[in-house]
């Protein structure tokens, strides 16, 4: 599938632009200025549409390219402001810090936790250890999944100390939003965060593999896009 068919700009220009935005804490106008210095004139609203369009696409491609992970997982959620209201980004990583999955939800409740955990377990199988916080809605969702045989009782643990790993991992997402305008809708927030999370996941994987070349968001995105 050609994800760039019919676009006014070439594929390489779009990937470079969105790759920089997802990787660094830059605004739309910052990216437009960088492109202008390289002889490419793009309006910031055009670039904004690229971000909203390609974020979910890169998330889908990243899921197709996911590699093996450990069977010890950490689950937690962090707050994201959308048009003056708090929404909740559910996230899961393994014991090596590699991203397993993520999802933005309007509410922090049983339904949100249940659907996120069910998809995580369905996609990645049963873990040997699943560490969560002690929030009641999350515990209720875990118990329900145990009854449905998605998870064994011995695998679940509530440990603030063990969950420090994912709480520290939230920092990249929070730091990325410092210079950017606040999100205006749950749809655009989810699309943008998808791209940011994918780049963060790819960067962690590269650092884990101790690559001699180093990490390049643009090269990683190009490698995922079908030829």
Automatic annotation (TrEMBL):
GO biological process, one term: DNA recombination
Domain DDE: residue ranges: 71-205
Pfam families for the chain: DDE_Tnp_IS240 (PF13610)
Keyword entries, A-Z: DNA recombination, DNA-binding, Transposition
InterPro entries cross-referenced by the UniProt entry: DDE_dom, IS_Transposase, Transpos_IS6
GO molecular function, a single term: DNA binding
Name of the protein described by the UniProt record: Transposase
Lineage: Bacteria, Bacillati, Bacillota, Bacilli, Lactobacillales
């Amino acid at each position: 599938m050609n994800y760039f068919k019919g676009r006014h700009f070439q594929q390489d220009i779009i990937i470079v632009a969105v790759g920089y935005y997802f990787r660094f804490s830059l605004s739309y106008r910052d990216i437009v200025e960088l492109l202008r210095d390289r002889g490419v004139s793009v309006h910031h609203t055009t670039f904004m549409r690229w971000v909203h369009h390609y974020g979910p696409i890169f998330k889908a491609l990243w899921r197709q390219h996911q590699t093996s992970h450990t069977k010890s997982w950490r689950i937690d959620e962090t707050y994201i402001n959308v048009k003056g209201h708090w929404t909740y980004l559910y996230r899961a990583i393994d014991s090596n810090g590699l991203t397993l999955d993520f999802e933005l939800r309007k509410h922090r409740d049983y339904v949100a936790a249940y659907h996120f955990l069910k998809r995580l377990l369905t996609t990645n199988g049963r873990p040997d250890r699943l560490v969560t916080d002690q929030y009641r809605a999350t515990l209720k969702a875990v118990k329900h999944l145990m009854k449905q045989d998605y998870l064994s009782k011995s695998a679940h643990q509530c440990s603030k100390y063990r969950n420090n790993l994912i709480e520290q991992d939230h920092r990249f997402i929070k730091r990325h939003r410092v210079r950017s305008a606040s999100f205006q809708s749950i749809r655009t927030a989810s699309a943008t965060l998808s791209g940011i999370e994918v780049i963060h996941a790819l960067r962690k994987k590269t650092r884990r593999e101790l690559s001699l070349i180093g990490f390049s968001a643009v090269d990683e995105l190009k490698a995922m896009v079908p030829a």
